[in-house]
Amino acid sequence: MYLNKVLLYGNLTRDPELRALPSGQQVASFAIATNRSYKNKDGQKQDSVEYHNVVAFGRQAEVIGQYLKKGRPVYIEGRIQTRSWEDKTSGEKKYRTEIVIENFQFGPSAMGGAGSANRDESSAPAQGKGSDKSGDIEYPAEEISPDDIPF
């Protein structure tokens, strides 16, 4: 069995570019930045940034083009794909590796809201469908005691 799965959480480095294929299907392309902190051999903290090209199709592309902007955090699930084409001006073969979105969720915004969009909404969990309100969750008023936990 083979697996091509990518999970990323990062910030958009530019506004999504929305285009249409000849078939009329929408395509959104953008990039996100992820970072990592580590200590080098001298024990000093180092930060490194990776930039990822991302592409979405169909309804997801429309939603991304409408709601995501530069600097906004986003969680992405997808697959890695490398495509190639011949440059018309130089005749040189070009390559681009990108993440094709299968599922995504908006990260927290300044307004405090979050949402998600799934390619196959029939397989999405029921609590995530159609609800974009974070105030719908009702928490119990009483405190939970460790003795109440069954394990």
Q: Level of helix content? A: under 10%
What is the CATH T-level topology?
OB fold (Dihydrolipoamide Acetyltransferase, E2P)
CATH class: Mainly Beta
- Please tell me how large the radius of gyration is: 20 Å
Q: Structural class of the helices, strands and pairings?
A: mainly beta
- Quick one: biggest sheet? 5 strands, mixed, barrel
Mean pLDDT: 82
CATH homologous superfamily caption? Nucleic acid-binding proteins
Query: Given the C-alpha coordinates, what overall shape results?
Result: extended
* H-E order: EEEEHEEE
DSSP E strands, number? 7
Overall tally of structural domains = 1
Give the spatial strand order of the biggest sheet. 1-3-4-6-5
Detailed description of the structure:
- The chain is mainly β.
- It has one domain: OB fold (Dihydrolipoamide Acetyltransferase, E2P).
- Helices cover 7% and strands 46% of the residues.
- The chain contains one helix and seven strands; from the N terminus they run ββββαβββ.
- A hairpin with a 5-residue loop joins strand 3 and strand 4.
- It is extended.
- The relative contact order is 0.17.
